[in-house]
Every structure is written in C-alpha cells, then in structure tokens.
C-alpha cells in the first residue's frame, strides 16, 4: 500500500461531505448533527474498543518521551501563540494548540505506520498518550470555557469524565484493558458497528463544514487568516517532527526508533480537532481548514521524512 492510498479515503470522504452540503442533500444542519453523532456516540465507541483491546505494557519509553516532548512544545506554543499572534480568545486557544500538535494517529496513522514503519506498535503508545493525557487537558480547558465566568471549579472538573463521553469511554476502555476483561459478543458487535462510523462521519462533517453556507456563529462568518493557517501548518508539519528528531537524538534513540518518532510527530492534524471545536462552538473554521491543509501537505512531508531517515 502506497502513501497515496492511505490519504485517498480522507480526501474522498471530505469531498463527499462538501458536495452533499453544496447540493443540499443533508440539510443545513448536516455538519452539526454529524459532529454531535461522532462526539457523543461513534467516537466513544471507537475509543472504548481500541483502548480495551490495547495492552498497557511498555507505555513509558524513551521514544514516547521524545514524541511527548514535541507534542507538549508545539501544543503549548500554539495555545499561547493563538492569543499573542492573532488575538484569539481564551476558548479558542485549546483548539489552536490542538490543531498545531494533535496528530491523526488513527485512520491515517495506522496505514502510514504500516507502510513506512512496518508495524503499529509505537503508534499504539502515541494513541494512549493522546487519549489519556492530551485529550483530557484539551477538554478540561474547553469545558472551563463553557462556564460564564471562566472559572475552574473542582467539582465541575471532577465530574467531567461522567459528563464527557470521550473521556468516560477512554477511562472505561483502559479499565477493561487493565483488568483483562472482554465484552460478550452481544455487546461488542453493536459497538463495533458504531465505532466503524466514527472516521467516515467525522470526515463527511468536516467536508460539510467547508461549504460557505450561512454560519450560525460569529467565528464561522469568515475563514481564518492565511497567516494563521501558515503558522499552524508550519508547527504541525515542520516544528513538531524537528523537535521530535532533536529530542530523539538527545535520548539516544536507535535509527528505527527515531524514524518512528519523527513519522508519528509529522502526521497531520486529527479530525478530532474539528469535532471538539464544533461540539464546544469555538474555532471551527480554523480547525476544519487546518485539518484539510495539513492532511494535504503532509503527503509530501511524510514522504520526505521517510526518505531522509529510512
């Protein structure tokens, strides 16, 4: 399988969503309804199944530390830079940081890891890091944004796993994996069907959001500045893999380990960024365009990284 074949489904389903919205096949609320379906049903099912079947051993490693350092640096800079450079509001900053440093480790990462690295063992650790560490931080910040006074309430944060289906499903999946539990087929079968809809529905929603229909929120009224997308793209496709490479050298990773870290760090922005932005009603335009742009350009940057380090 070539890199092109790994990217093709993403481009095609995004185009399908755009065309469906343009031709009025799904109604004006298509992107919103599909996004909520993914956030509340399909994505939790997919995360639960993936994490419940994923061994937790070997989570701590030098390779993962190198990747984690690159993620922290880029997400942190994007989070702060969104305000410093472009005057983004507090609620939009987590989405900006996520767009800059949260990689597409699932539907794009798996085929690319298989093609370039030969296996998905390190990618599984990346998934765990993003789901168990990065995602809760992002969602806590977005949840704080929903508070009228912007306050951090301990009781509200403590109840977030119960109120947020993504975090709840992730925690339950990890608990099942740690306990060695397996769902009966009667429960696993419908969850498997539901989880299979997560990636395609998210991509169709992403494509629908790109159609210039009348927005329901002010932040959708006009697309983000070209400079914003340029900075996000540079952070995602250049800065993050370069930082991962430098951290890998400092940690004395072997050549195969270094290749795995750089390739995973160079994956484009995950479509989850758009789903979270849509669910919380902040930064949707930035998120949707960042996903499309970084996905398109990463075909070249990932190929270059594989050629240089492979």
For the structure shown, list the relevant keywords.
single chain, 310 residues, AEC family transporter
Description:
The chain is globular. Mean pLDDT is 86; it is low at 214-221. It is mainly α. The protein has 15 helices and no strands. The longest helix has 26 residues, at 284-309. It has one domain (50-194, 223-309). Helix 1 (3-22) packs antiparallel against helix 15, helix 3 (62-86) packs across helix 4 and helix 14 (272-280) runs antiparallel to helix 15 (284-309). One of its GO terms (cellular component) is membrane. It comes from Micromonospora profundi. The chain crosses the membrane at residues 29-51, 63-86, 122-142, 162-181, 289-309. Keywords: Cell membrane, Membrane, Transmembrane, Transmembrane helix, Transport. It holds the Pfam family Mem_trans.
SSE succession: HHHHHHHHHHHHHHH
Rounded to an integer in angstroms, the radius of gyration calculated over CA atoms is 19 Å
Estimated share of beta-strand residues: under 5%
Structural class: mainly alpha
Helical fraction: over 70%
Separation, N- and C-terminal Cα atoms: 17 Å
């Amino acid at each position: 399988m070539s890199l092109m074949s790994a990217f093709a489904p993403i481009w095609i389903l995004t185009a399908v969503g755009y065309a469906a919205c343009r031709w009025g096949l799904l109604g004006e609320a298509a992107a919103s309804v599909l996004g909520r379906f993914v956030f509340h049903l399909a994505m939790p099912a997919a995360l639960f199944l993936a994490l419940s079947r994923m061994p937790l051993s070997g989570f701590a490693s030098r390779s993962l530390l190198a990747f984690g350092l690159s993620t922290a640096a880029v997400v942190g800079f994007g989070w702060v830079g969104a305000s410093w450079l472009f005057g983004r509001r507090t609620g939009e900053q987590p989405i900006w940081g996520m767009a800059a440093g949260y990689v597409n480790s699932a539907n794009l990462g798996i085929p690319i890891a298989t093609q370039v690295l030969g296996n998905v063992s390190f990618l599984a650790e990346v998934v765990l890091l993003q789901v168990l560490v990065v995602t809760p931080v992002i969602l806590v910040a977005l949840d704080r944004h929903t508070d009228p006074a912007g306050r951090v309430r301990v009781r509200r944060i403590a109840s977030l796993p119960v109120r947020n289906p993504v975090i709840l499903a992730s925690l339950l999946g990890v608990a099942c994996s740690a306990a060695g539990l397996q769902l009966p087929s009667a429960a696993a079968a419908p969850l498997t069907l539901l989880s299979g809809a997560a990636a395609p529905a998210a991509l169709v929603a992403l494509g629908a959001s790109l159609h210039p229909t009348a927005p329901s929120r002010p932040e959708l009224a006009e697309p983000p500045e070209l400079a914003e997308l340029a900075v996000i793209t540079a952070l995602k496709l250049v800065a993050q893999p370069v930082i991962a490479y430098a951290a890998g050298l400092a940690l004395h990773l072997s050549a195969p380990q270094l290749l795995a870290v750089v390739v995973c760090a160079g994956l484009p922005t995950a479509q989850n960024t758009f789903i979270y932005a849509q669910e919380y009603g902040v930064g949707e335009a930035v998120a949707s365009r960042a996903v499309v742009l970084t996905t398109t350009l990463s075909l070249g940057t990932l190929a270059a990284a594989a050629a240089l380090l492979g």
